[in-house]
Amino acid sequence: NKGKYEHYMQKEIHEQPESLTTTMRGRLIRGGSSNRKSVLLGGLKDHLKTIRRSRRIVFIGCGTSYNAALAARTILEELSGIPVTMEIASDLLDRQAPVYRDDTIIFVSQSGETADTLNALEYSLSNGALCVGITNTVGSAIARNTHCGVHINAGSEIGVASTKAYTSQIVVMAMVALAIGADTISTKPRREAIIESLLELPGKVKQVLKLDEEMKDLAKSLISEQSLLMFGRGYNYATALEGALKVKEVALMHSEGILAGEMKHGPLALVDEHLPIVVIATRDQCFSKQQSVIQQLKARKGRLIVMCSEGDGTAVCGSSCRVIEVPLVVDCLQPVVNIVPLQLLAYHLTVLRGYNVDQPRNLAKSVTTE
Ligand code: UD1
Ligand code: F6R
Fold first, then answer.
1. pLDDT by residue (tens digit) across 209-241?
2. Beta pairing partners, 37
3. Does residue 135 have its Cβ closer than 6 Å to ligand 1?
4. CA torsion angle 212 193 282 7 (round to 10)
5. For residue 178, which of 321, 250, 52, 79 has the smallest C-alpha distance?
6. pTM (2 d.p.)
7. What is the value of ipTM here, to two decimals?
């Protein structure tokens, strides 16, 4: 049931304040002597000791689920102190890459039925690794065959383009990072900042959804473009990849997410006054580097659309580029806020270009073949 919406994708984008609330429900609880909020993930609690002892954590997924894991990688590394590597499911299998008994492998899949991810799970199980699932579908093959895991509880997602599952996956993985990480005096301020920000997140997402009309406007200005680049780095490299994936899969427009640190190693050659480029430059440790990327793109007359933190618009790019201002949250959760305007942009571009929003050409919701 689409309710007041025209498409499931639109409904699912606008539902995110509620889906994020459900994802966190019952999992941020008061406890301990300080009576501060901490994370309780019922599906992981008996396995945390084993996970903390593992030599490496590997994220495995496809498409949007891979991008969500990439968005959470840094915070998991930071809080756990364990190296985290990334694998696209099909590529792990193509390489028959080494997987060891002392690895923890986290399988991220909305449907829980994706063939490549399932095959990678079977492969990892036979190599003796601890296998953890993060899925939206209770009773799915990945939920059943992993040793333990967490359901993201985002509610069923019907639009082929994954939207609300992406933001809920990131939130679950941030909670997984908090659950694995040590709760000590030195980590306490950081942990509390993240938990506070998690609690505020549904409200911030509600706020960023107000950009709907502005994104429709932006989509109008891009309607007949051939291509759209998205530059991100740090926590928001994943935002660039995921924003580009949305535009490509539903609006059927070529779009590429690019790691801004790689700009001078090739992509800069594409820049001219015609090609539209989204640059994600919200406040975090990478902010000054992104400012310099913007300067370099401007020097080449790049046609920029800059996503920045509220109030930063003129400071970040003067009057010569289009600005998308978003509310600031803690750095590791900023990807949850930043993807929303790009989901809206992809949605409006698709409607304006006259393509099928919920059933993009050639794609299926659940990819059950290799
Ligand atoms: C569980 C209940 C929830 C209830 C809550 C109350 C289920 C599905 N969930 O939620 O309805 O409100 O307790 O305490 O009954 N698992 C995997 N692989 C996966 C995902 C999950 O093995 O990919 C396992 C978990 O290890 C766990 C079980 O499935 O044993 C349920 O996971 P989850 O729903 O995340 O647990 P809770 O949040 O505790
Ligand atoms: C993109 C999209 C796909 C899926 C991918 C993995 O919007 O939906 O890229 O993310 O097919 O699917 P799951 O998460 O079900 O394993």
1. 999 999 999 999 999 999 999 999 999 999 999
2. 30
3. yes
4. -20
5. 79
6. 0.98
7. 0.99
